[in-house]
Write a structure and sequence with these properties.
Layout (H helix, E strand, L loop, with lengths): L19 E14 L2 E8 L2 E7 L6 H5 L6 E10 L14 E12 L16 H6 L1 H4 L3 H23 L3 E2 L17 E3 L7 E3 L5 H9 L4 E10 L10 E11 L3 H19 L4 E2 L6 E3 H8 L20 E2 L1 H4 L5 H6 L6 E7 L5 H13 L6 E8 L2 E5 L1 H18 L6 E7 L1 H18 L7 E2 L1 E5 L4 E4 L4 E4 L10 H7 L9 E6 L2 E8 L4 H10 L4 H7 L1 H7 L6 E7 H9 L29 H6 L10
Parallel strand pairs: 3-5, 6-9, 11-18, 12-19
Antiparallel strand pairs: 1-2, 1-4, 2-3, 4-5, 7-8, 9-10, 10-24, 13-14, 14-17, 15-16, 15-17, 19-22, 20-21, 22-23, 23-24
Helix pairs in contact: 4-6, 4-17, 5-16, 7-12, 13-14, 15-16
Length: 601
Amino acid sequence: MHRYRTHTCGQLRESDDGQTARLSGWCHRIRDHGGVLFIDLRDHYGITQCVADPDSPVFKTVETFRSEWVVRLDGKVRRRPAGTDNADMATGLIELYITDAEVLGQAAELPLPVFGDQDYPEETRLRYRFLDLRRERLHKNIMLRGKVVDSLRGRMKGQGFNEFATPILTASSPEGARDFLVPSRIHPGKFYALPQAPQQYKQLLMMAGFDRYFQIAPCFRDEDPRADRLPGEFYQLDIEMSFITQEDVFDAIEPVMSGVFQEFANGKTVTPSPWPRVAYADSMQKYGTDKPDLRIRNPYTSAPLEIGDVSEHFRGSNFKVFARLLEAEKNRVWAIPAPGGGQRTFCDRMNSWAQSEGQPGLGYIFWRETDGKTEGAGPIANNIGPERTEAIRQQLSLKAGDAAFFAAGDPAKFAKFAGDARIRVGRELNLVNENAYEFAWIVDFPMYEWNEDEKKIDFSHNPFSMPQGGLDALTSQDPLTIKAFQYDVACNGYELASGGIRNHRPDAMVKAFEIAGYGENDVVERFGALYRAFQYGAPPHGGMAAGVDRIIMLLAGEQNLREVALFPMNQRAEDLLMGAPSDASTKQLRELHMRLNLLEK
């Protein structure tokens, strides 16, 4: 017999009744039922109920067991007594009657329980992550992660993509976030950088003629953490293709993403191909974000709930706050429809929420039926009069019992708030289809944006993207009107992927950076490898990167990326388990030719 086990704790079935078995695992739960001890023994594969009564030769030993002790148990497999079956367990028809036992590893008093799913402080969970990972939900999430990565990899190879690993120690590159720098011992005063993304390397692979590349790539960015972004390190499905158009990227990636979600959707629906295409400008106006949650539906049309531009109904009205704002050409008034929200109590709740978000308030109209006629109510309705109120209702296709909330000013400043209000309305009024994964391509991103702080034009997204219209657009168009061959994948309110067709023409690349304030020397200095490669026959190419962690978070039904990562950092970018970041010794600093100059606290 094997030293530790003949079966795993998830393996025994009714057909094993009468066999002798040896199991090893953790004491998941211990119950004493009138002198009969029940041990739920757990390993990676499952749980088996093990029983010891006073007649068992090792009863006294089993009595000493405590939660999370690691033990070996020998015994006879037997059918559970009638009425004690557990349909929720794969091993729920049998139990092991213990005849021999050995303690393999005792456990001290636990800082957090493994049995159950109690909510514990994040600091405790991360400091004792090895215990946290024993818990059923997290254990399942990590196993799901492996299966999803395997599925992504298999689907990419099935589409003819080749997997390549790109370097981890590289040069600093302005990708939009801070680099993690690594000092060089051999080259005093110089630094490597951990890659924010394999962007330049994957483009160089296209220069080298490999045609279709992918990688489950680790990426490193020194940025502030948040619920949908891990601090420090994250993983992405990185992709690049040669001799392709934007449509070719969509055709290649859509079945991969759809297929993975369909495989692990667990009963939820997945947007069928082809996915909707939403222009960036339309997405911002209709949903207040470039990553819209299309599960928020209008119950009257079954289409996604859309924000409406109702500026014309307020222009010249007696509601002076909005009427004066609209005297400036760039200002608009947007309405967030709220089907079913036509109660003053709900409107007041929304107003309080807006104030908690730092807004002065949230104006509203709600409609009710009076003597068989639908009428608007509230201060705004009273000010603008029944004709304008009715025109707003008809534009938004609302009915008695519904409401609308208003945001006004420069859309560039209030769009995010309007989008948040739409999400709030959707959740409060149960307009979100929780049993769906709703995908869309967001396309036609602006190539440039105005940096108000520095009074200059900046790249709005990815500086490597090809402008629509190519070099002609760069030389003849107002830069702020140029759109890029740039696209995102949005799903359920998250950006799951981002990419673009690359600017592979050296002259167009230099001109594109020139508009953003960089000279040719800057391009050569910062992107020398790419710039040189483009001189020697560059194929048209493009690609994208999908966030692996976010994909798994959605499929696991979690709200935080730390629930699907093995050993994440906390909100302060600290690894509480390993104690990172840590101090460097004087010897280490000397070898790196470095001296600390810390600010006084």
